[in-house]
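Action item from last meeting closed. Structure (65 res):
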């Protein structure tokens, strides 16, 4: 998944939903890891102050796996 600086949670969720189902799980796992405190993806979202809250919003907007 190609991250884009400045994206909103809604934009990220919409992009996640365009990923083929076979690959979507891995992308969603990155956001689940962010909710759990991982900062591994922080470089892709420098505009985000609270990565965990951002990731939680993305996951809630993207719906169930």
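Sequence:
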């Amino acid at each position: 998944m190609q991250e884009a600086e400045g994206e909103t949670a809604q934009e990220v969720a919409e992009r996640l939903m365009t990923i083929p189902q076979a690959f979507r799980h891995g992308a969603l796992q990155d956001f689940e890891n962010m909710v759990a405190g991982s900062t591994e993806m922080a470089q892709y979202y420098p505009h985000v102050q609270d990565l965990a809250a951002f990731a939680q919003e993305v996951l809630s907007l993207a719906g169930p796996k």
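Note appended to the action item: The chain has one domain: 1-48.
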